[in-house]
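HUMAN: Mind sharing a backbone?

ASSISTANT:
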Amino acid sequence: MKSICLIIPYFGEFPSYFQLFLNSCGKNQKIKWLLITDNDKPYNYPDNVSLISMSFSELKAYIQKKFEFPISLERPYKLCDYRPAYGFIFQDLVREYDYWGHCDVDVIFGDLEGVLEKRLDDYDKLFEFGHFTLYKNTDKINRQFMSLYNGECLYKKVYSVDTSCIFDELYSNSINNIFIQNGLKILKENISADIYTKSSDFLLTYYNEKNKGYRVEKCRNAVFTYEEGRIFQYKKKRKEIVKQEFAYIHLQKRKMQVKISDDNAKCFMIIPNAFEDYRYNITLENWRRIKKKNFNLHYFQIRFKNLTIKIKRCLRRD
């Protein structure tokens, strides 16, 4: 398989299930992760995840040296806009790899290697979203973020403002628009279980490029599992259990409780909003016995947060 390096600058507290994230990385030994962070809490890091200790201010200074104009990088979340430039910014770290990329830490990986091995050779960029993207490691691709889009130098505009511009994903003056305009090949296949944020249930969301919006799966009667390095969704349809595999599950910053008895468990359940021990084989006969939900206030917290944002926007207009 082609060599891959994923870069994750992350500052502050990790999710409650960060050890499970690390374990899932460790199951994909052919892929390398570089974690740049100021978090020094002890975790069991697998040998394919390297820790680079750095403060946010130090990283900002490091990135500033790569650009000839004053950049705006006042808070860690703004780093998302810099993701398409990681191949240029961290060129010394990714030099030996065929592909570089970035991902979130609110994910649990399944069999990434198996999914990627068949898809790497034919594309300049794999996937459209910030939670997991790969780029071919060539000088041409690593500098694509600097290319003009409709005659405009987007990156200078994006890197000069403190607001989030979503430069790393979707199709609103983003890196994807630049790649398409320049005739570069993007793999748009969805390999993730991308969990909807505005429901307490684990509903899947799918991006509809034609409509420039998201479609939300209607099936609520489903559970996810981690089974020896693989991610599965099980759902009941009439008188059968339908099983589907995903390369990873993206939990979209949900606050999850870790209720499994062993962080190194080979199998566990992933339900709203907890990781639970795998107690029963998932069969039609056992379906009623399987716990499918953990009481949580996620939906109400999200609604309150969205309402607060709307009120603040209205007050600014006034």
